[in-house]
């Protein structure tokens, strides 16, 4: 479980393409401190398992399903990535509940800078739009953000200087892909209401 509070901006050191998977070597001095085989680290919002760890670098395998559902397949050597370790039990939940299970991808559509913040417009897959509401939470490339405007095919977020300086959203440009994870609570509520409606229909 993660919170969407990015700990550091890491870097892809190597990419090994396999038959139906990919192995990444990534550098991240903060998230690798005390890391060991089998630990989880979120990379651009995708929960990955540490396979090997040496110094400030670690490797992680990404299966075809994850490559198909996320933007990790677009990473190359030198790409910057958002890194976060799982939340410790008893720690403060600074963002919102993030599973590290990407629901789909969007693309940066527009950036509007201002003096103290920047508004970013991001495309939204049709099957995810019902989970995105104004002032609700959404995870973009592993970053917990508050939705400003929510339309059927896009949403906007406002980024403060810290977010721009410490995450990939400070460097991504229109056309670049981003990973999206909607609020899991919304999905559970939808499922429970749907099951209840089905049950009530059967009772009639």
TrEMBL record:
Job of this protein: Catalyzes the dismutation of two molecules of 6,7-dimethyl-8-ribityllumazine, resulting in the formation of riboflavin and 5-amino-6-(D-ribitylamino)uracil.
Lumazine-binding repeat locations: 1-96, 97-193
Pathway: Cofactor biosynthesis; riboflavin biosynthesis; riboflavin from 2-hydroxy-3-oxobutyl phosphate and 5-amino-6-(D-ribitylamino)uracil: step 2/2
Name by which UniProt lists this protein: Riboflavin synthase
Residues annotated as domain Lumazine-binding: 1-96, 97-193
EC number(s) from the headed UniProt entry: 2.5.1.9
Broad EC category: transferase
Species for this entry: Streptomyces composti
MF term (GO), any: riboflavin synthase activity
């Amino acid at each position: 479980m993660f919170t969407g509070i990015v700990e550091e901006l890491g870097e892809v050191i190597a990419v090994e393409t396999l038959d139906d998977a990919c192995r990444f070597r990534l550098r991240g001095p903060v998230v690798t401190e005390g890391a060991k085989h089998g630990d989880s680290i979120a990379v651009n919002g995708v929960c990955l398992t540490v396979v090997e760890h040496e110094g400030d670098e670690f490797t992680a395998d990404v299966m075809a399903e994850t490559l198909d559902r996320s933007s990790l397949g677009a990473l190359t050597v030198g790409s910057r990535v958002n890194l976060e370790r799982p939340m410790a039990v008893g720690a403060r939940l600074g963002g919102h509940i993030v599973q590290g299970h990407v629901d789909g991808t969007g693309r940066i559509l527009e950036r509007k800078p201002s003096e103290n913040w920047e508004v970013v417009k991001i495309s939204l897959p049709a099957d995810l739009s019902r989970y995105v509401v104004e002032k609700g939470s959404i995870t973009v490339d592993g970053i917990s953000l508050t939705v400003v405007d929510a339309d059927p095919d896009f949403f906007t977020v406002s980024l403060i200087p810290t977010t721009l300086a410490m995450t990939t959203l400070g460097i991504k440009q229109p056309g670049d892909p981003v990973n999206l994870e909607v609020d899991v609570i919304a999905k559970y509520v939808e499922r429970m209401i749907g099951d209840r409606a089905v049950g009530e229909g059967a009772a009639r």
